[in-house]
Design brief:
By secondary structure, the protein is an alpha+beta fold. The protein has a domain at 44-117. It is 26% helix and 19% strand. A 3-stranded mixed beta sheet has the order 1-2-3, with no helix packed on it. A hairpin with a 2-residue loop joins strand 2 and strand 3. The protein is globular.
Amino acid sequence: MRDDNTFGFSFVEYDENLNIFIKNLEVEKERVNNTKDLYPLKNGLDCIHCSALPWIEFSGHKEPVSGIKDSIPKIAFSKVSNVNNELMMNVSINVNHALVDGYHVGVFSEKFQRFLNQKNLK
């Protein structure tokens, strides 16, 4: 989200090296903040759509389908809340069942939770 409360979609180039990925993220954030464009320069089907809704807690979330051949995974993150001295954040995961089974969503969820539980996140 930009300072004027508008937003632009972004495409962050993935890299296995976390430092390079973070640099790619920072460059894309800078691009979005300095333009009124809605869509990124690079956009394709080889991605995951992620949304953050840090203003609200939700128990369900549905992303719009962007096309007939849409099979892009969509993940949304809610507001982080303190519940009984534990930080809680809901995550909505929408996938095309022709490509992903519940097993795979479960594996992702377990790994994601493991990363969140790490004490030394930087």
